[in-house]
Here is the input.
Amino acid sequence: MRIQCPHCGARDAHEFTWGGEAQVSRPLDPKACSDAQWGAYLFVRQNPMGSSYERWCHTYGCGQWFNIRRDTVTHRSEPMSESDPARMRLKRPA
Here is the structure.
């Protein structure tokens, strides 16, 4: 598998560290969360078949964190464009 680093170009996946889904937002006040809400934040992920928005770190390269859109079937990856939904910060409950 090759990952498309926006800073260095396409590189072998062994150079990278996966950081999870790109659109997961940490709760503003973790102490106010119930155990179920905190558990959902920590462990519940979508695991889609097809297009997925993910965080990656080019650990053995430039060291930068970035978001990509990766197809989980073909493993084709591309840097996210400005219009991708995962680039937008999710609204958090007040």
In short: The domain at 2-84 is CATH 3.30.2270.10 (Folate-binding fold). Residues 89-94 have pLDDT under 50 and may be disordered.
